[in-house]
Amino acid sequence: MDLGLKGKVAVVMASSRGLGKAIALEFAKEGAIVVLASRRKQALEEAAEEIRNAVDGAEVHCQSCDMSKEEDIASLFEFIEDKTGRVDILVNNTGGPKSGGFTEVEDADWYGAFEQNLLSYIRTSRAVLPYMKKQQSGRIVNVSSSSTKEVIDGLILSNTFRAGMVGFAKTLAREVAKDNIMVNTVGPGRIMTDRIIELNEIAAERQHTTVEEVAEKSAAQIPIGRYGEPEEFAKTVVFLASSANSYLTGQSLVIDGGLLKAL
User: Fold this and answer.
1) What pTM was computed for the model?
2) How do residues 49-82 score in pLDDT, each as one tens digit?
3) Which UniProt keywords are present, listed alphabetically (predicted)?
4) Which of 14, 61, 156, 225 could form a disulfide with 20 if both were Cys (CB 3.0 to 4.6 A apart)?
């Protein structure tokens, strides 16, 4: 299937590692012009070079950006305007907020998670929509969490703000559909990333066991029988962001190997 991504400009947030980097790599494989953005400049430059080495002729740009800072997002889109003059695809992605239950988080944690995991997506969407409306075409894919379908114990901040982000995305999708702009949300289940390793380490400490035992028990709960790989998740994101997706919008999907029991 031709995804129609050759020459399209794809901006991928939080793309110096993990799911973001995997998504950026898949876009490059499809011939898209990729703009990487992340807080850590050195890691970002290393990721960009890694993609260039993996894909012959890949055009990859990178710009440091802290998604919790409005001025950084403004600077990012000034950079994009200078480099490409257009944006066809935006992949919103950030790291997860602080773990913990209700009594373990304070006001500062709530404000921080709001800025990182909800307001940041609103700001980047606001910045990209003028490009997409002018072109009468665009795709926004928001990376969320499986907690949007089934809450995860000990992650009250993620459960709260990821759900709010889905509400935002659904509403936005309805508003911009007339401009041929598709907005969808994709949540990872247990995909082998640093975040999953971190959560397994926390679980191992609480359960007084090893990380390996936690991972083994966790994988056994997944019908497919294993954790997912970042590239498996990335392929779904790339499809949703492509012209091959001409009718799917306003949806919230979970890539989880069948783990969740929620409908």
Assistant:
1) 0.93
2) 999 999 999 999 999 999 989 999 999 999 999 9
3) Coiled coil
4) 14
